[in-house]
Design brief:
Blueprint lengths: L1 H5 L22 H12 L9 H6 L15 H4 L12 E2 L2 E2 L11 H25 L1
Antiparallel strand pairs: 1-2
């Protein structure tokens, strides 16, 4: 779990929000925690850019193509999905945070929660070492 807390908000490489002034009073904590839990499931993964893909709800197992290995040649959708979500056309199906990265309020809450979790982990590690 240590890698997640090294992951910074900037490492997600999210685009500048398209809708900066929308939904200023909505609490996205459930979606933010769901996203962070899914990021944690890819800690230490050898999949390049997995955190970026998960943050955008793109299936990291097939990199958004919906095909695995040579199945692309056969035109089959063969990806079974990520650890917690099925793959539907290269996207993580039923991901609660899907498309929310476009909103400034969501990005601010995500950044704050990632910093909070990093601080909590850092404090816990100091107690035991």
């Amino acid at each position: 779990m240590d890698n997640l807390f090294r992951l910074k908000f900037e490492d997600l490489k999210l685009d500048k929000p398209k809708h900066p002034a929308r939904f200023p009073s909505i609490d996205w904590s459930e979606e933010v925690d769901d996203l962070i839990d899914n990021l944690a499931s890819y800690e230490g993964s050898r999949i390049y850019g997995a955190a970026e893909m998960v943050a955008r709800a793109t299936c990291p197992e097939c990199c958004g193509s919906s095909c695995m290995d040579s199945d692309y040649e056969n035109g089959e959708d063969s990806c079974n999905g990520s650890h917690n979500h099925d793959c539907s056309g290269g996207e993580m199906s039923q991901a609660s945070w899907s498309q929310l990265h476009k909103y400034e309020t969501f990005q601010k809450q995500l950044k704050a929660r990632m910093l909070e979790r990093a601080d909590d982990c850092h404090i816990m590690n100091r107690k035991y070492f």
